[in-house]
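Suppose you are handed only these lines of text.
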Amino acid sequence: MEKSGADHEVLSLYIESFNRMFAQSSPQVMRDAAEAVKLFLTRKVVDHFAYEERHIFPALLQANPGEGVRNRVSEIQAEHKLLLKEAKRLDKILAQEELAYDRAGFLRKAMLDFLHHLEKHASRENALFPSLM
Ligand SMILES: [Fe+2]
Ligand SMILES: [Fe+2]
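From them, the structure of the protein bound to fe (ii) ion can be written out as follows.
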């Protein structure tokens, strides 16, 4: 359970560091930042969602069998699907051979939008299972 709460807390640090990396104009720094984003997407987010769906949601539903919690878990699972779609879209941008400067700006905005969506999602989860965080 701690794993999930800690991941939520580091989101604002990710946003800060992506902002710093993307503020650089060097193509190499931009490239490295893009790789870091990609690593974040493929490892952290996918693993985090899978962990919640495999361990946290079932435990939560077992402890709170009511319809209210079940509906909110369904909503959160639907958000996972949407966020993973958004992550795939970002992955496509990152897969481009050359990250041209204008595309880098586009990537920066898309990545920050995604991180802000993740933040909103995490705070909804924190409200749903505060005792597990
Ligand atoms: Fe989640
Ligand atoms: Fe989460």
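What can we learn from it? The domain at 2-132 is CATH 1.20.120 (Four Helix Bundle (Hemerythrin (Met), subunit A)). The CA atoms of residues 42 and 87 lie 8 Å apart.
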